[in-house]
């Protein structure tokens, strides 16, 4: 087995683990961090596939923009208790 194949399977396993952590996570901020990790690992797979441009775009657009926008959206959203109109 070549080094590229071994690194691919390592990255794929880590992506699946991080994606599972997103799904079972109860804290939305930690889920966003796991989503960012998935995006970074996906750019690693692009690098293995000799698609460096796509890896850079993956980091710039998804990690740099989408994750930050989601994080700001979560942080700026008001939280209320269920059945109550008071802010937490």
TrEMBL record:
<feature type="transmembrane region" description="Helical">
    <location>
        <begin position="6"/>
        <end position="25"/>
    </location>
</feature>
<dbReference type="Pfam" id="PF00499">
    <property type="entry name" value="Oxidored_q3"/>
</dbReference>
<dbReference type="InterPro" id="IPR042106">
    <property type="entry name" value="Nuo/plastoQ_OxRdtase_6_NuoJ"/>
</dbReference>
<dbReference type="GO" id="GO:0008137">
    <property type="term" value="F:NADH dehydrogenase (ubiquinone) activity"/>
</dbReference>
<keyword id="KW-0472">Membrane</keyword>
<dbReference type="InterPro" id="IPR001457">
    <property type="entry name" value="NADH_UbQ/plastoQ_OxRdtase_su6"/>
</dbReference>
<keyword id="KW-1133">Transmembrane helix</keyword>
<keyword id="KW-0812">Transmembrane</keyword>
<protein>
    <recommendedName>
        <fullName>NADH:ubiquinone oxidoreductase subunit 6 (Chain J)</fullName>
    </recommendedName>
</protein>
<feature type="transmembrane region" description="Helical">
    <location>
        <begin position="55"/>
        <end position="76"/>
    </location>
</feature>
<feature type="transmembrane region" description="Helical">
    <location>
        <begin position="32"/>
        <end position="49"/>
    </location>
</feature>
């Amino acid at each position: 087995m070549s080094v590229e194949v071994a690194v691919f399977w390592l990255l794929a396993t880590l992506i699946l683990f991080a994606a599972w952590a997103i799904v079972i996570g109860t804290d939305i901020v930690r889920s966003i961090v796991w989503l960012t990790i998935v995006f970074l690992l996906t750019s690693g797979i692009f690098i293995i596939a000799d698609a460096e441009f796509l890896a850079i775009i993956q980091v710039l657009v998804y990690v740099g923009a989408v994750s930050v926008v989601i994080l700001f959206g979560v942080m700026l959203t008001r939280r209320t208790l269920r059945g109550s109109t008071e802010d937490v």
